[in-house]
Amino acid sequence: MAGRELHVVSTGRQPLDELARIAGLIHPYVDAIHLREHAKTARELLNGIGMLLAAGVPADRIVVNDRADVAAAAGVQGVQLAYHSLDVTDVKEWFPQLRIGRSVHSLKEAVEAEKKGADYVFFGHVYPTASKPDSPARGLRELKLLASRTRIPVIAIGGVKPANVAETLKAGASGVAVMSGILEAADPIREAAAYHQCLHRGRENNHGPSS
C-alpha cells in the first residue's frame, strides 16, 4: 500500500455489528479499518472480522490491534502493535504475511520500530483530543522531526480533522488515523469522504475513492 492513507480505528464503544455496518458503507474511502477492541476475546475478534467481511469490507483493508495470531488466522491485511504487544521482530518472523504497524510516541520508539521491521508507525496524539484531556499533544514540530528521521510511513493520530489534514501532511505524515470523528459521526460516509478528499486533494482528477 502506498500513497496517503486513511486509517479508521474502532473505539471499542460500538457493538461489532454496528461497526461492521458502518465499515461496509465507508470502506471505499478508507485504506485500513482497525479492530481496536481490547475487551474482546480472540474468538470475538474473529467473529467481528467475519462481520466486516460479510458487510463487504475487503480482507486487505482490515487490521487487528495487538492480536497478530487472529489477523493471520483470518487472512487480513495486518496487525497494529502497541507497547505491550509482541515485539515487531517476533511478529515479522512468525507472521511474515502481515503488514505490521507499531504505535509510537517518540522519535526513539519510531526509529526502533523501523529497525525491527515495522512497515509503518502510528504517531500521536498530534493534536489535543477529548480522549486524552490530561495528556499534552505532541504537536506538528515533533511529527515533522519524526517523519524526517524515518523512512517508513508515519500515520498521524489524535485530534486530526479534515481542517488540519493539509498541515499534517505538510509536516511529513503519510496519512491520518481517525476514530470517533468518523465512526461516531452523524454521517460517517460524509466524514470519511471529507477526510479522503483532504488527503488526496490535488492528486485526483475525476477519480472516485478506492474500490
From TrEMBL:
A GO cellular component annotation in the UniProt record: cytoplasm
Pathways involved: Cofactor biosynthesis; thiamine diphosphate biosynthesis
InterPro entries: Aldolase_TIM (IPR013785), ThiamineP_synth_sf (IPR036206), ThiamineP_synth_TenI (IPR022998)
Pfam families hit by this protein: TMP-TENI
Biological processes annotated in GO: thiamine biosynthetic process
A molecular function (GO) term: thiamine-phosphate diphosphorylase activity
Keywords tagged on the record: Thiamine biosynthesis
Domain Thiamine phosphate synthase/TenI: from-to ranges: 15-182
NCBIfam families for the chain: PRK07695.1 (NF005819)
Name by which UniProt lists this protein: Thiamine phosphate synthase
Organism: Paenibacillus albilobatus
Lineage of the organism: Bacteria, Bacillati, Bacillota, Bacilli, Bacillales
Gene that this polypeptide is encoded by: thiE_1
